[in-house]
Amino acid sequence: MGDFYQNGIITTLHNLSRRPVAELEAELLAFSRKRPLGLLLPSLYSELEGEALPRIVEHLAAVPYLNQVVIGLDRADAEQFRHAHRFFSCLPQEHRILWHDGPRLMALDEELRALDLAPREMGKGRNVWYCMGYILATGRAESIALHDCDITTYDRHLLARLIYPVAHPQFNYEFCKGFYARVAGGRINGRVSRLLVTPLLRALKKTVGEVDYLEYMDSFRYPLAGEFSFRRDVLRDLRIPSDWGLEIGVLSEMYRNYANNRLCQVDIADSYDHKHQALSANNDRDGLSRMSIDIAKALFRKLATRGVILSPETFRSVKATYYRIALDFVETYNTDALMNGLDFDIHQEEKAVELFADNIMKAGEAFLARPKERPFIPSWSRVSSAMPDVLDRLNEAVELDNREVAGH
């Protein structure tokens, strides 16, 4: 049971009454008649063969209020695209699959690359960016939710609560971030958020001073949640990273583009579990190790745009401050786990803290070594300015792909 406490400067919408999903869905269905609602699903083909996505699709098939479902499909050949079409065919809502590895979308990507406007690396950020472009191109949904496809604890109550704040006609929210307790399988999960992001934000406050942006970021209960919702007009000017800094990057963009009272966060699940990444302590190009570097770089870049001067000495101070704060958090989480009868491995937690501390320095060194790096994918406003028919062509490519596969 959540409480009513409002932490920080972002409105928190709690789960105080456990409203039945049928009540929420009845309201959302009424909202959808005036404000069409959509869902964006970024997916790897491998997730179609996992345990989570079949369950998610089964739940979505019973959702009555969605006007559009957009599925971004990565790492799929032609036969796998055909299988994906059959897999999602049980959805009664209008739905389209963006086959990112297909010849039509790859050709469009090459044209954008020639103009230096394409995403620079594969990954979730690229997948989401193209899906957002397609949503703009079609104009079929005004409020859209996005969630991952590897949620093993999924039910449609999560989606209803996630989209409700941007769907309600009397609310003025442009963006909503989901949060939840990362507790599953008798243990506390969410190591990168618990042991990197929160203590790093607190360390940066101590090191560089009270910056409004840091207070804003520290207001989010679970900043790395892959679940959020937004109004369609958010998409045109959104610049997002293509690396693991996607979630931090989106929050940073909302800070840049909107007043705080247009943003909120909502409790969407009592418990949440998904596919876990390995720590990858010996490989900083993979797993949580790479994720931690990308996230730290995303925070450092944003601080630099706010006029904060960062130097090697700054990063050494940040690392030392972070390390002390993070170890204190380990003790806090240990007592919380013990009181709730959950498993907790202090040794593994402190190993993660040590790795993240080292990666803060690596992120700082990378930031200083490449000051001209452009980490963000260009906004669709800029892309449309350079190629005025890009959204029409994206829409046409997706329609042709889906029409052809439906004819097989």
Number of strands: 10
What is the topology, as strand order, of the major beta sheet? 1-10-6-9-5-2-3-4
What is the first-to-last residue Cα distance?
49 Å
Broad structural category: alpha/beta
Largest sheet: 8 strands, mixed
Keywords: Transferase
Protein name: Glycosyltransferase
GO molecular function: transferase activity
InterPro entries: Nucleotide-diphossugar_trans
Q: Care to give the gist of this entry?
A:
One of its GO terms (molecular function) is transferase activity. This protein is 50% helix and 12% strand. By secondary structure, the protein is α/β, with parallel strands linked by helices.
Fold and architecture overview:
This is Glycosyltransferase. Keywords: Transferase. One of its GO terms (molecular function) is transferase activity. It comes from Pseudohaliea rubra DSM 19751. The chain is of the alpha/beta class and 408 residues long. Helix content is 50%, strand content 12%. It has 14 helices and ten strands. The strands form two sheets. It has an eight-stranded mixed β-sheet, with helices on both faces. A two-stranded antiparallel sheet has the order 7-8. Helix 2 links the parallel strand 2 and strand 3. Helix 7 runs parallel beside helix 10 and helix 11 runs antiparallel to helix 12. The protein is globular and about 60 Å long. The relative contact order is 0.14. The model has no long low-confidence stretch (mean pLDDT 93).
